[in-house]
Amino acid sequence: MKFPKLAMIGAVVILSAGLQGCVIAVNGDGENYSTSDSVSKKEASNRAAIASFTDGMTVETVQNELGTPEFSDLWTVDNVRYRVLYYRTQRVHADGNTTRDECTPVVFANGNLIGTGEFALSRIPQNN
Question: N or C: which end of the chain has fewer CB within 10 A?
Fold first, then answer.
């Protein structure tokens, strides 16, 4: 069965209308510009917030300011409950995935902030 030329043109127009707005611009790394830009802004915002933190802040206060962490660890040693929240602060790998080495640890003992960064993390006992 042959379709009339007008019917075929109509089908092409209808089908192509659904494709409008589907263009994705990518940079040289193969990342979406808007995504890369928004991630960079979020990283800068996280760095600024973490730099302003003071000892004793609660887990809730930090999460209210920074949102859900990329990673979270929780353990108890000698009746002290340690929680480490990891927030993305720099890009190391341009692969679209967030890894711990792209995050800054925010370290709590019994719900209160005791430090940030790798040095703070290295100073707390590990759960063996």
Answer: N
Query: Is the alpha carbon torsion for 29, 32, 34, 35 positive or negative?
Result: negative
Q: Report CA-CA distances (Å) from 54 to 72, 84, 127.
A: 20, 15, 25
Domain annotation for the chain: domains and CATH numbers: 28-122 (3.30.1450.10)
Quick one: which H or E segment has residue 84? Answer: strand 80-88
Q: Which two tokens stand for residue 14?
A: 């209808």
Q: DSSP letter at 102?
A: G
Q: Tens of pLDDT along 79-125?
A: 999 999 999 999 988 788 899 999 999 999 999 999 999 999 999 98
Distance CA 58, CA 109 (A): 10
DSSP state of 70: S
CA–CA dist 89, 98 (Å, integer): 10
- For every residue of 24-49, DSSP letters joined together read --B-TTS-BHHHHHHHHHHHHHHHHH
pTM score, whole prediction:
0.70
